[in-house]
Design goal:
Order of helices and strands: EHEHHEEHEHEHEHEHHHHEHEEHEHE
Strand order of the largest sheet: 3-2-1-4-5-6-7-8
Number of strands: 13
Largest sheet: 8 strands, mixed
Strand content: 5-15%
CATH architecture of the largest domain: 3-Layer(aba) Sandwich
Helix content: 40-55%
CATH topology of the largest domain: Rossmann fold
CATH superfamily of the largest domain: NAD(P)-binding Rossmann-like Domain
Bound molecules: nicotinamide-adenine-dinucleotide
Length: 407
């Protein structure tokens, strides 16, 4: 059996490697020729715990990387699915392009599995018409399935092995066929359902996370107004047997939680009220952090933004993914207010992607008086002692030895 994994990003690449490692013949395809060249030259395209070993094993088992789509039994599509900033609906263009490319090469009885996160009904609206057309033209029975991915950067390999999964298909036979591939490396439970239910379940999971984070973030603002320590409140509340309030933070980023809930808002306006409110609360946090920075600067007589440093550019700790990150949202907000000069450092981001970004932690620290922790990388926690002579605003509440400002 041959599997063609299309889209070798944060989701497609580890999935392709995992499948190859489990003994399946895999061709990984990406339209980004630079990315494919790197992979062909045994260079990884992002950092992730455990991925080097998996990459090596998959290479030993003969995984192929290519810019070409190949005739295969199964296609796994893991291409981006952003949302339209105005309508809030899913943008299916990448998916449609990938499906159109795949149907040019795939044969009878192959299955196209969409791993990308999509709003409920996306496959019926955008994918099925393309596949039905080819089936009619060629007399084929190309099948469709949806196997949404739940893994989180930083724990991708472990979660690929151990998470429960959902597979949606039009028939039990197709679902079982796809299940047998994932069962080769996934030790979690694999639930079989129909396509639309699988689409909805994934979006609902991410909206659930967003709503719960928004609750913690709303408490930050209420407790600040009431002059009460929000962390103490959360600690006490969580001692209740049926309460589990999440950690507040400077915002929500990444390619999932800050994106997917919008699909429901876009498709069900008027019905998705809590989901919309949660999106707005979480999106308001970078600006809230900015307000707190200005108060702390004023309290301490800091008059230049150039004496303030932001620690962390990624959307979560110990990964290099910066997409939609709270720091990028905060810098964008500053740009709108024509506020320039704040300094930035992130040990995981190896290229210069923003103004005044430092590559060396010590020189960064030597230039600032106030450090704003936006990401709780292990690197910072391990180097807390280097911050002794700094004012620190710890939006992640990760530093334990220093007396810091909190959200
Ligand atoms: N990143 C996550 O943590 C995460 C978690 C769960 C689900 N998802 C979902 O998985 C999907 C992929 O996300 P990602 O983070 O891997 O994206 P990504 O941007 O890291 O990777 C996507 C890859 O697809 C390639 N691509 C785009 N169009 C293509 C085409 N027509 N043919 C071949 N390659 C093509 C791009 O070049 C890129 O390398 C999205 O729907 C996302 O919502 C992501």
């Amino acid at each position: 059996m041959l599997v063609n994994v299309v889209g070798l990003g944060y989701i497609g690449l580890p999935t392709a490697l995992m499948m190859a490692d489990s003994g399946i013949q895999v061709v990984g395809t990406d339209k980004d020729a630079e990315r494919v060249k790197m992979l062909q030259n045994s260079q990884l395209v992002f950092e992730e715990e455990g991925i080097s070993e998996l990459f090596f094993n998959a290479a030993e088992k003969g995984i192929i990387f290519s810019t070409d789509y190949v005739a295969a039994d199964i296609y796994i599509l893991a291409v981006p699915t952003p949302f339209n900033k105005r309508s809030k609906k899913v943008v299916a263009d990448y998916l449609v392009n990938a499906v159109e490319a795949v149907v040019k090469v795939c044969g009878d009885n192959s299955v196209i599995v969409i791993e990308s996160t999509i709003s409920p009904g996306t496959i019926d609206k955008f994918v099925r018409p393309i596949v039905d057309c080819i089936n009619r033209q060629k007399g084929y029975q190309i099948e469709l399935a949806h196997a949404p991915e739940r893994i989180i950067p930083g724990r991708m390999i472990e979660e690929l092995r151990n998470n429960n999964r959902t597979i949606g298909a039009d028939s039990v036979e197709v679902a079982e066929r796809i299940k047998s591939i994932y069962a080769g490396f996934c030790h979690g439970q694999i639930v079989l359902t129909d396509i639309k239910t699988a689409e909805m379940s994934k979006v609902v999971e991410n909206a659930y996370r967003d709503v719960n984070i928004a609750y913690a973030n709303e408490l930050v603002k209420i407790c600040k107004e009431a002059c009460i320590d929000v962390y103490e409140i959360i600690k006490i509340a969580n001692m209740h047997p049926r309460v589990n309030i999440l950690k507040p933070g400077p915002g929500v980023g990444g390619h999932c939680i800050s994106v997917d809930p919008w699909f429901l808002v876009g498709d069900y306006p008027g019905l998705s009220n809590i989901i919309l409110a949660a999106r707005k609360i979480n999106d308001s946090m970078p600006e809230y952090v900015l307000d707190r920075i200005s108060v702390i600067m004023e309290e301490n007589g800091i008059t230049e933004l150039g004496r303030v440093g932001i620690y962390g550019l990624t959307y979560k700790e110990n990964v290099d993914d910066v997409r939609e990150s709270p720091t990028l949202q905060l810098l964008n907000c500053m740009r709108k207010h024509l506020a320039w000069g704040i300094k930035v450092y992130d040990p995981y981001v190896k290229n210069i992607i923003v103004k005044n970004q430092y590559m060396d932690f010590e020189s960064f620290l030597s230039e600032i008086d106030l450090l704003v922790v936006m990401v709780g990388h292990k690197h910072l926690v391990n180097n807390e002692s280097m911050l002794k002579d700094k004012l620190v605003f710890d939006t992640k509440n990760v530093l334990t030895e220093l007396d810091t400002y909190k959200l």
